[in-house]
Amino acid sequence: VDLDTAKKELEEFIPHVRNISDSSIRKMAGRDLVRFKQFKKQGISVKFGRFSQKENNKIRKNVEEFLLITGIDSAEKLLFTSRYPEDKETINRLKAEHLFCEKLSEGIPRPWRLIYYRARKMFDPNNYKGRYTKEEKEKLKKYHALHGNDWKKISEMMSRSNLSVAMKYSEIKSAINYGPWSKEETQKLMRAVEEVIRKRTEVEDANSLSSSERSHRDLSIDREKLYQKLPWTEIEAKVGTRYWRQCKQKWTTILTNKMTKGQQLYRGTKGLQAKINLIKRLYEMKAEDANEVNWEELSNTIGDVPRAYVQAKFYKLKVSCVPFWQKKTFSEIIDYLFEEKLPELEEKL
Q1: Using CA atoms, how far apart are residues 243 and 174, in angstroms rounded to an integer?
Q2: CA gap 172, 134 in Å, rounded
Q3: Per-residue pLDDT reduced to its tens digit, 163-178
Q4: Scanning 155, 242, 244, 340, which has the fewest C-beta atoms within 10 Å of its C-beta?
Q5: Helix, coil or strand: residue 1
Q6: What is the pLDDT of residues 328-341, one digit of tens each?
Q7: Distance CA 277, CA 263 (A)
Q8: 269-278 burial by CB neighbour count: b if 16+ within 10 A, else e?
């Protein structure tokens, strides 16, 4: 398929395809186009965003089956072949002979590249090594001074995953404050959020309003835009003294206080009732994965609060109440809360 035809055909499945480089489009035309058309015939649309538990399980199954077929003895060898130079030639030959690309992506309606990255993240033994020690942080600073943003090289030197070292460096590259927020920091955060929302709204208005309408218009936005899909790395840079995740958590707290007029919605009997309602509603939804939950709708179980507040409360609930929650699926966690924790909360109430 020539490049223009490939772009045109892929655009049906990936609307932003014209922003992708030509070399990536050629690869997608080879790896994905036929798959996407087959999924379309089955009435299945191409997915983006977070992987569901079902998709993660399918990736595991595809990798395990490929290892059985080829006799390659570990997922690490299969997905991180460059770590095993003595076996590299044999592994690459087996991958080509047994159609690795097709086998890995089988049954998953996503671009192959995203499936491959997800598999690497899942099976990288360097990806789950806990907190960084002081010595590791100093090493990371030293290696970055020597090698810049070559995260692949740095990850090999530190025996951590690429993503882990890149994210940790973004966290420690400047003097991050971990104490209570000062008044000045809070004001910087609020100004930063206002700036990005105002800029986004002006771009949207440019497409729908005349210049005279824009100049006489007060900033009026949907409430959802105050907490959905904000560019937190940009906001982190504007605040300067806080990591992006801290900015997001602080902004959620500010919004929650404003929306609830400072009421303590998650304390005392109100808190018990909120937990009971949250568990019941999640159980009724019968969702297999957190991605399938409408968190916006669930916010009513606690009160008029942002979705991130509800998600944070659910996270705290599962961590504090569900033993070995990391090894359980989302539906198993909900079942445990409903069967074991709910009666206890109702009795306490």
Answers
A1: 9
A2: 11
A3: 788 878 877 766 667 7
A4: 340
A5: coil
A6: 878 888 889 999 99
A7: 18
A8: eebebbbbeb
CA atoms within 13 A on the CB side of 64: 7
Q: Are 70 and 94 in contact (CB under 8 A)?
A: yes
The answer to whether 147 touches 154, Cβ cutoff 8 Å, is yes
Q: Do the beta carbons of residue 337 and residue 318 sit within 8 Å? A: yes
Query: Residue 85 phi/psi, 5° resolution?
Result: -55, -30
Token pair belonging to 206: 């440019």
Is the four-CA dihedral 282, 279, 332, 126 of positive or negative sign? Answer: positive
- Distances in Å between the Cα of 225 and the Cα atoms of 221, 233, 265 are 7, 17, 23
**CA–CA separation, 126 vs 112, rounded Å?**
23
d(CA 201, CA 97): 52
Q: Is the pTM of this model over 0.70?
A: no
